[in-house]
Design brief:
By secondary structure, the chain is α/β, with parallel strands linked by helices. The protein has 13 helices and 13 strands. The structure holds 2-amino-3-ketobutyric acid.
Length: 343
């Protein structure tokens, strides 16, 4: 057995995804854990060098997870792997396998790990505003900010999967095998955040329905024309990636006794697509952007709330975005993206 096993390890699934990049940078900076990265694709060099071990494989491969069981002492799992909302609509059953069965496999791994080393395993689960489903745009306008318990009627397979996995996590943490004579605490400490659309200066998303905002920005910075698939007047909550990473780490570190729920909304700013267009145009005056809404993807965005009520996260674990709309674009996204494509 190698030395790394002695060090408490953090497992990051979907490590090569958008959030994985930011999270691995932040975890590596803290330096207190071995980082075990798992992804179906090889990791980009920039993050690979920050990980103790990289496993290329599928979260549906139970043998691979069983092998991990014996090789690592995992104390925290950031389960980021998922098929996002647009991609999931093309292959709903495959999405269900990855998003639900994959999560179940990781929850089982968490239980086994906790039994093995005797401490709780923190299970960090990024959920999404896709768990909400508003019936029409009038209702969306009328309700404004939604609370965690409201409008839980997702219209996408991805949203359905995320909502179910929130419940699965709560079950594993609180009620697992409740009728068994030997039933003891499962050892899973499940914590979840419903993220808004995320925008990163470093990576471009793929397969999501909130992708129009980052796509518009990244296309403009590269001088590529962009056709936006939603109407100018549609609004959903967005967040700059550094705030999303800070939120995950902050909820991970929050004292358990302060947490009144397993699932939290967090918000930052809620621009319309037209407002994002105006900001992008100011930064890149030559940008060729037109709006040609795709009715079906538009309907998905219309079903998501214009804003979220994140007061519980603020009270319980001190959530507060550091990047409002102006700071996100002026201090992070625009300079970061300019530097990225100048290289
Ligand atoms: C998606 O569009 O699928 C994601 C999300 C809102 O969770 N970005």
């Amino acid at each position: 057995m190698s030395e790394t096993i002695r060090k408490p390890a953090v497992l990051v699934t979907g490590a090569n995804g958008e959030m994985g990049h930011g999270l691995i940078d932040a975890l590596a900076e803290s330096g207190s854990f071995s980082i075990i990265a798992l992804d179906v694709r090889p990791l980009d060099e920039s993050i690979k060098k920050k990980c103790t071990d990289v496993i290329i494989g599928d979260i549906l491969e139970t043998r691979l997870l069983e092998r991990m069981q014996s090789e690592y002492e995992v104390h925290s799992i950031y389960h980021l792997a998922a098929l996002l909302s647009t991609r999931a609509e093309f292959t709903p059953e495959a999405a269900h396998r990855v998003n639900v069965e994959g999560t179940l496999n990781l929850l089982k791994l968490a239980i086994e790990q906790s039994r093995w080393h005797g401490k709780p395993v923190k299970f960090m689960f990024p959920s999404s505003i896709a768990v909400y489903g508003l019936p029409d745009t009038q209702t969306k306008k009328r309700v404004g900010k939604v609370k965690e318990s409201e409008w839980n009627y997702p219209t996408t397979m991805y949203g359905v999967n995320k909502l179910y996995c929130e419940h699965l996590g709560r079950y594993y943490a609180k009620h697992y095998r409740q009728l068994a004579s030997d039933n003891t605490n499962s050892g899973v400490d499940f914590r979840s955040i419903r993220f808004p659309g995320l925008i990163s200066a470093v990576t471009v998303p793929s397969g999501g329905t909130s992708d129009y905002a980052p796509e518009m920005l990244h296309a403009a910075a590269q001088g590529k024309p962009y056709s936006c698939f939603v109407r100018e007047d549609v609004a959903i909550p967005f967040m700059a990636m550094p705030d999303a990473i800070t939120a995950l780490l902050k909820l991970h570190d929050a004292p358990k006794g302060k947490l009144s729920t397993a699932v939290y909304n967090i918000g930052s700013f809620s621009p319309t697509a037209g407002e994002i267009f105006a900001i992008v145009k100011r930064a890149f005056p030559g940008a060729e952007i037109k709006f040609s809404p795709d009715d079906k993807r538009q309907a998905i965005v219309d079903s998501w709330p214009a804003d979220v009520d994140d007061s519980t996260a603020r009270t319980d674990w001190g959530w507060k975005p550091e990047y409002d709309e102006a700071r996100s674009f002026n201090a992070y996204l625009i300079p970061g993206i300019k530097t990225r494509y100048a290289q």
